[in-house]
Write a structure and sequence with these properties.
Layout lengths: L1 H16 L1 H30 L10 E8 L4 E3 L4 H10 L3 E8 L3 E6 L4 E10 L2 H4 L6 E2 L10 E5 H8 L2 H4 L3 E4 L2 E9 L11 E5 L13 E7 L5 H18 L1 H4 L2 E7 H6 L3 H32 L1 H9 L4 H37 L14 H27 L3 H6 L8 H37 L10 E7 L5 H19 L4 E8 L8 E7 L13 E7 L3 H4 L4 E4 L13 E5 H7 L9 E4 L7 E7 L14 E5 L9 E8 L7 H11 L4 E6 H8 L1 H35 L1 H9 L4 H33 L12 H27 L3 H7 L1
Parallel strand pairs: 5-10, 7-9, 16-21, 18-20
Antiparallel strand pairs: 1-2, 1-11, 1-12, 3-11, 4-5, 6-9, 7-10, 8-9, 13-22, 13-23, 14-16, 14-22, 15-16, 15-19, 17-20, 18-21, 19-20
Helix pairs in contact: 1-12, 2-10, 2-12, 2-13, 10-13, 10-15, 10-21, 12-13, 15-21, 15-23, 15-24, 16-19, 21-24, 22-25, 23-24
Length: 802
């Protein structure tokens, strides 16, 4: 222990004598450890850590696999759910909930709020093992008109959990009594604040209507494969009993954690791989620094060997110095990681699951620390071990500046720089590809105009169709009053706003085409409900026919407007105007097509324009009491929030409202792409900086090593520009070798990680060209200062040092 303490103090003195080396090493290590700890913390918290539900590993979600589509569908039909509940013995509990649940208006007496509401069956809390903070959970005998709420909802609206028990609120005109308050950690689906009870039997038992989602908890000791075998057997029996609807169906049990995080796994794994590359580059830079320092200490090591120091003693001192450096770097890295994690959480897209579970993972810090320590030890002990074997007399005779570097050390340093540039090139190519893709998404023609559009989510509660008709008229009046507000240019309402939170889709049928009784293989379309002037408000071109007007009422003949894609899909070579169409949204009435409008990208700029069927809000009141009011303005949209809210509240205090802009809504639809692009671009910049440091370090060391040779060249008449060119050509040679290796590596990695880059064109030659130009420029700039220093060497001073 006394020897170790001596070595520790010696290491501190040695680092104190080389503050530049120490500070650079600590800073580089801190960047690598901090960035890796922050990114892996996100990955570990979101993807790897178990869900915070009781027996979370036993909870599954039921999906329906359709052979025709080839992919699982995260919903079930009411009839299939009942059969699973009755026949499956592998599950302790199963429950269903309304697959269309989301944000809705909740009326609290004197005001209304928008919050996430889910309708669930009585067994739902038991599947998740929810223990209430106050009150109780649902029971089968009194689930109707009862509700559970989260602790924050109870606190914000009633003052606390106990105060909320027994209180009543309304949803869609129906009263619900709060019987229990549950912790926020129990919220499923994510961000749910209110659960209202449904009966044990779904309202719809139609086996072609996927109106529900369902979850279950496996019995203790039952494996997922056993449960899946039972579900497959049930699916086979249902296919025989109901061939028209279940012939191509298979019910699938998917672990809940996989269901929640599967969608974001590719993005997070891509970012984790990128930050791992950054850590590799950090290790290469630290290795370069350690090699340079070890070579400079050759004579010192030789002197100590001549004075009797053993090889083990020398190596131990070097190792202790490496531990000190790695520990300091890790300490600073943790300091950097804490704000980095907070920044990542703030940057994360809103739909990133389990954001609340993200916290700094010290295990990740330990792993990064271990990798850095190993790099330092390998990069410093190996040269020290080699030096200790050299004849001390020969080492002491060697020039201080030249040391015992030799060709081997130079080759190792050059190889490390090439590897660093290759890794940086790969990361830069990925970043360039993502930036190019994001630019394309940002400039894509959406089919509608997004600037200066205020979006108002408005929910007027209605318990039945008659109330929905009245509420629809109220919202119509609100639209008319908003149009009179100074600064508003045009205004309308819609259910199914592009990139909005509501919408519907499904199959449709053209009257007179096909078998009216055959509902299989129907063409599909997005469904939208709009008010008069909607297309003009969003600058969606009306290609043919007319828009909806005030005469298109609930009691009038039903009409519809179709998009160009739907016209091509079902009326190729025909005039669709006057033809009739049916859909299963809410009414069996045939709708006469009165117009054709341009296509829009419905879900996001990344979505392809598709078939859309538009219907008047007034003819479908059961879906028209919760709408998005869109107002195109001459003034900043946010400045109209207060007057718009006041207009709607004066009409009906029970109307819940929420505000955003269309630009913000579109931006949120590509938030995941922006998140991955921003982070990968940042990692690429960090890698470029580290690569520049690596090239600079190697070139500066080469100049120092060749100081005498360069002095002789200048003394013999060498032009300074030739000296600069010699240094720059050496740097560019290393850069070109690294780029060549990086090109091969990037092509291989992009092929392997194709699934992680969904939606990205990986064959974009411009991105490879940009990465090449950037790397060459960085290498040239990094080598310029050492090149200038070489050109300014005084031949006399250089020769005297010999």
């Amino acid at each position: 222990m006394n020897t170790l303490m001596q070595d520790f103090r010696y290491a501190l003195r040695q680092l104190g004598r080389a503050p530049g080396f120490a500070a650079t090493s600590v800073f580089i290590l801190a960047l690598g450890i901090g960035v890796n700890a922050a990114m892996f913390t996100v990955v570990n918290s979101v993807l790897l850590q178990p869900l915070r539900y009781r027996d979370a590993d036993r909870i599954v979600q039921f999906n329906t696999h359709e052979a025709r589509s080839g992919a699982p569908f995260a919903r079930v039909t009411g009839g299939d759910y009942l059969d699973v509940r009755a026949q499956a013995s592998s599950f302790e509990k199963v429950a269903y909930y309304d697959g269309g649940g989301g944000e809705a208006g909740v009326q609290l007496g004197d005001h209304a709020v928008f919050t996430t509401v889910q309708q669930v069956s009585a067994d739902f809390p038991q599947v998740f093992g929810i223990v209430p903070l106050a009150g109780r959970i649902f029971d089968d005998g009194s689930v109707a008109h009862t509700a559970l709420v989260t602790a924050p909802f109870a606190r914000d609206n009633y003052g606390g959990a106990q105060q909320a028990i027994g209180r009543t609120f309304n949803v869609e005109g129906k009263p619900y009594e709060i019987v229990g308050v549950v912790p926020t950690v129990a919220a499923y689906p994510a961000k749910t604040s209110v659960w209202i009870g449904m009966g044990p039997t779904p309202d719809s038992l139609e086996r072609t209507a996927y109106n529900y989602r369902a979850v279950g908890k496996l019995k203790p000791g039952v494996s997922l494969s056993t449960a899946q075998a039972e579900l497959s057997a049930i699916s086979a029996r249902l296919a025989t009993a109901y061939p028209a609807s279940n012939q191509t169906k298979t019910l699938v049990a998917k672990p809940l954690q996989e269901q929640i995080v599967g969608r974001v796994r590719p993005v997070l794994l891509l970012l984790l791989a990128s930050v791992a590359v950054v850590l590799l580059i950090v290790c290469v830079n630290v290795a370069l620094l350690q090699l340079a320092r070890a070579t400079q200490q050759t004579r010192q090591t030789a002197v100590r060997t001549a004075l009797g120091a053993t090889r083990a003693r020398i190596v131990q001192q070097i190792a202790v110095q490496g531990v000190v450096l790695a520990t300091l770097g890790c300490a600073v890295g943790v300091v950097l990681a804490i704000p980095a994690v907070r920044l990542l959480v703030r940057m994360a897209p809103q739909d990133l699951p389990r954001v609340a579970d993200i916290h700094l993972d010290l295990l990740v810090v330990a792993v990064s620390y271990g990798a850095s320590l190993l790099t330092i030890l390998l990069a410093s002990i190996a040269p020290a071990w080699h030096t200790s074997r050299v004849d001390p007399a020969e080492a002491i005779k060697q020039d201080t500046a030249r040391g015992l570097a030799g060709r081997h050390s130079t080759a190792v340093r050059n190889l490390l720089v090439v590897a660093e540039i290759a890794l940086t090139f790969t990361l830069t190519v990925c970043a360039a590809l993502l930036v190019h893709t994001l630019i394309q998404l940002s400039t894509t023609d959406l089919g509608y105009a997004t600037s200066n559009v205020l979006v108002v989510y408005a929910h007027a509660p209605a318990a039945d169709v008659d109330q929905a008709i009245l509420k629809t008229r109220t919202l119509e009046t609100g639209v008319a009053q908003i149009a009179a507000i100074p600064g508003v240019e045009r205004v309308s309402a819609v259910m199914g706003l592009p990139t909005g939170q509501s919408g519907s889709n499904g199959g449709y049928m053209v009257v007179g085409k096909g078998d009216p009784n055959d509902h299989t293989n129907l063409p599909e379309a997005d469904f939208g409900l709009t008010g008069p002037g909607y297309f003009k408000t969003l600058d969606i071109p009306l290609k043919r026919g007319r828009d909806f007007n005030a005469q298109d009422q609930y009691t009038s003949p039903f009409v519809a407007i179709i998009s160009e894609s739907l016209a091509k899909q079902s009326f190729a070579g025909e005039d669709p105007i006057g033809k009739q169409i049916l859909c299963g949204l809410d009414s069996p009435n045939p709708m006469t097509i009165i117009g054709v409008v341009g296509d829009v990208r419905q879900d996001s700029p990344a979505a392809l324009p598709g078939a859309t069927l538009y219907m008047p809000l007034t003819q479908h009141p059961s879906h028209a009491n919760e709408v998005e009011i869109v107002a195109r303005t001459h003034v900043p949209p946010a400045s109209l929030i207060d007057p718009v809210r006041a207009k709607l509240q004066s009409l009906d205090p029970s109307i819940a409202t929420k505000f955003t802009t269309l630009e913000q809504s579109v931006g949120e639809s590509i938030a995941t792409q922006r998140f991955r692009t921003t982070l990968l671009f940042g990692f690429a910049l960090l890698a470029l900086t580290l690569a520049a440091l690596g090239v600079y370090g190697v070139m500066a060391y080469a100049v120092a090593q060749r100081r005498i040779d360069i002095g002789i060249r200048i003394a013999l008449g060498a032009d300074k520009r030739n000296v600069v060119g010699m240094i720059l050509s050496g740097a560019l040679s290393l850069a070109l070798a690294g780029i060549a290796a990086g090109l091969v590596l990037s092509v291989l990695l992009l092929h392997v990680t194709k699934s992680l880059l969904a939606g990205v064109v990986t064959s974009d030659l411009a991105s490879y060209a940009i990465a090449t130009i950037v790397l060459l420029s960085v290498a040239a700039l990094a080598a310029y200062l050492p090149a200038r220093r070489a050109a300014s060497i005084d031949p006399v001073q250089a020769l005297r040092s010999e």
